[in-house]
Amino acid sequence: MNILKSVTFLSLSILLISCFGFTDKKETQTETKATYIAKEKTKVAYFASGCFWCVEAIFESVSGVEEAVSGYAGGHTLNPTYKSIGTGKTGHSETVAVYYNPEKVSFETLVTVFFGSQDPTTKNGQHPDYGTQYRSIAFYETDAEKAIIEKMIAKLNAEVYHGKIATEVTKLKKFYKAEDYHQDFERRNPNQGYIKAVSIPRLNKFKKRFPQLLKTDKH
């Protein structure tokens, strides 16, 4: 019985500090992010590096980024949902669409943010979330974007990671916006267990490492 209780407690603990530990009970939330309407000069970049609650918050802290939207990409299943990608069988990864002003922040800088806010050597996950749905992917839509990503990987592999980067470089086929209750999740749920234990510390670590890239009151 004591062993059973220990296993149950451990399972619950893992669930509480997992991106997928969020239940469906809040799917009916009325406070959601409206569909973002891009400005004339706005461009979009797509990145996946673990739980999209964390990734969205990181990119939204960057000067020149107008909005970040959580969603799913990189897989083969049509119309994926949070439940379906949680099985790890859809091929999709939790992905963030980053709307940015290229006159204020370059695609290359966003790629720097992407690699600088994760452990790109981890295959299929970012601690404490593991599975293909949490794998690291740098998406591109043009040859120029692909070249920037591959140049960054080559540089980091040579100077920092000794050839161990596991990030996939994939051409974007389609991005599916995630359910509304995932949007701005960290901002709206600062006291949620996973947010306090994982997401906020990850954001703060990024801010400490790249203070020059952060938004100010004037941005």
Automatic annotation (TrEMBL):
Record-annotated Peptide methionine sulphoxide reductase MsrA domain positions: 45-194
Pfam families (UniProt xref): PMSR
EC number(s) given by UniProt: 1.8.4.11
Active site as annotated: 51
Keywords: Oxidoreductase
Catalytic function, reaction form: [thioredoxin]-disulfide + L-methionine + H2O = L-methionine (S)-S-oxide + [thioredoxin]-dithiol; L-methionyl-[protein] + [thioredoxin]-disulfide + H2O = L-methionyl-(S)-S-oxide-[protein] + [thioredoxin]-dithiol
The keyword Ribonucleoprotein appears for this protein: no
Role of this protein: Has an important function as a repair enzyme for proteins that have been inactivated by oxidation. Catalyzes the reversible oxidation-reduction of methionine sulfoxide in proteins to methionine.
Matches recorded under HAMAP family: MsrA (MF_01401)
Family of the protein in this entry: Belongs to the MsrA Met sulfoxide reductase family.
Name of the protein in its database record: Peptide methionine sulfoxide reductase MsrA
Source organism per UniProt: Polaribacter sejongensis
